[in-house]
Design goal:
Layout: H1 16-33, H2 37-58, H3 61-71, H4 75-91, H5 93-97, H6 99-102, H7 111-125, H8 129-142, H9 147-167
Helix pairs in contact: 1-2, 3-4, 3-7, 4-7, 7-8, 8-9
């Protein structure tokens, strides 16, 4: 079910290495107790999948709720959820920093950065260019390499320049 609203997912391919290591450990553990190897492999895969789904659904629940509200067009409530997500991951930076292990997530963008980007984007969708611009600038202060924030600020600047050309 697609809402027609953009959702960006960037993968950090290197983060798959620790996840494969975790999967390998699970396979070895299950192989000690379950024979043949094929059964241990299947059991390890099922457990890994279940754990990853539980972790990704439970830990970043404010982020997930914010995405759902955003897709429904409820930007004000989505902003509230993204702020809660930002606060959570600022308090628990180690979860976000090691998300490839703690959440079994291969996301290239941290949840902290995503929260701020999503807040800025929701402000854009709510026609609040001033706050949107402030949040994108905040993203760049904290994450100077954020291509999404740079692109968004360039787009906002080009729209501001167009409006100046029209007014002037």
């Amino acid at each position: 079910m697609s809402s027609g609203k953009p959702v960006v997912r960037q993968i950090a391919w290197l983060s798959i290495v620790p996840q494969l290591f975790i999967m390998g450990i699970l396979v070895l553990i299950f192989h000690l107790f379950v024979k043949p190897f094929k059964s241990a492999l299947i059991l390890a895969m099922i457990i890994y999948l279940a754990v990853s789904l539980i972790l990704r659904r439970c830990v970043p629940h404010h982020h997930r709720k914010g995405i759902l509200l955003y897709q429904q067009g409820n930007y004000e409530k989505a902003i509230e959820e993204f702020r809660k997500s930002y606060d959570f991951f600022c308090r628990h930076t180690w979860i976000d920093k090691y998300r490839c292990i703690t959440l079994l997530s291969s996301s290239r963008t941290s949840y902290t950065e995503m929260a701020l980007l999503n807040i800025a984007f929701c402000y854009t969708q709510s026609n609040n260019a001033k706050l949107s611009k402030e949040y994108y600038q905040r993203v760049l202060e904290l994450f100077p390499k954020s291509e999404m924030a740079k692109s968004a600020l360039n787009m906002i600047s080009s729209f501001e320049n167009e409006e100046d050309d029209i007014d002037g």
